[in-house]
Amino acid sequence: MGVSELGHLVLYVRDVNRSAEFYRDVLGWRQVLPEPGARPVGAAAFSGGRTHHELLLIEVGPDAQAIPAGRRVGLYHFGLKVGESDDDLRAMLERLKAAGATVVGASDHHVTHSLYIEDPDGNEVELYVDVPGVDWRSDPSLIASPIAPLRL
C-alpha cells in the first residue's frame, strides 16, 4: 500500500474572506465551504470536483508571521491546472492583470506552460496548462527538460 494521490492542501491565511475572494473570484475555483450566503466560519474550502476539497484555507489573523523571504524549508509553491491550451493560459493572465494579482514568473517546462503568482498572503501558486501532444508517460525524461522562458 502506498500513496495513490495528493488529496488536499491546507494554507493558513491572515484574512479568510480576502483569500477566499482571490481563489474564488480571481482564479475561478469553486468554493464549497462556507456555502454562498453562509456566515463565515474562519475557514474556506475549494474543489474542482475531483474530491470534497483540494484546498482548505484557515484564518490565523492579521498578526500572523509572514512567510520568510529567501531559501527556507517548507512549501515552495503548488500547481493548479487552469485549462487545456495556451489560449486558456493567456485568458488567465488577462484575468490576473485585471485583478491586480502579482505575477512573479512564466516558464516553459516543455510538459507544461506555467505562470507563477502570489496569493494575498504571499504563497506562490503555479497556474499551468499541459502542453498538447507531449507524452511524458512514454518518456519521463521530458519532466526534467531544461526550463525555458514562456512566451505567450
Key words describing this protein structure:
152 residues; alpha+beta; 2,3-Dihydroxybiphenyl 1,2-Dioxygenase, domain 1; five-stranded mixed beta sheet
CATH domain fold name of the largest domain: 2,3-Dihydroxybiphenyl 1,2-Dioxygenase, domain 1
CATH architecture of the largest domain: Roll
Strand content: 25-35%
Strand order across the biggest sheet?
A: 5-8-7-6-9
The overall average pLDDT, rounded, is 95
Q: Mind summarizing the main beta sheet?
A: 5 strands, mixed
Number of helices: 2
Per DSSP E runs of 2 or more residues, the count of β-strands stands at 9
What sequence of helices (H) and strands (E) makes up the elements? Answer: EHEEEEHEEEE
Classified by CATH, the class of the largest domain is Alpha Beta
Describe this structure in words.
The protein starts with 8 loop residues before the first strand and ends with a strand. It has 2 helices and 9 strands; from the N terminus they run E-H-E-E-E-E-H-E-E-E-E. It folds into 2 domains: 62 residues, Roll (2,3-Dihydroxybiphenyl 1,2-Dioxygenase, domain 1), CATH 3.10.180; 76 residues, 2,3-Dihydroxybiphenyl 1,2-Dioxygenase, domain 1 (Roll), CATH 3.10.180. It has 152 residues and is an alpha+beta fold. Strands 5-8-7-6-9 form a 5-stranded mixed β-sheet, covered by helices on one side. A 4-stranded mixed β-sheet has the order 1-4-3-2, with helices on one face.
Question: What is this structure's SSE topology?
Answer:
Blueprint: E1 9-13, H1 16-26, E2 31-33, E3 43-46, E4 55-59, E5 77-81, H2 86-99, E6 102-108, E7 112-118, E8 124-130, E9 148-149
Parallel strand pairs: 1-4, 5-8
Antiparallel strand pairs: 2-3, 3-4, 6-7, 6-9, 7-8
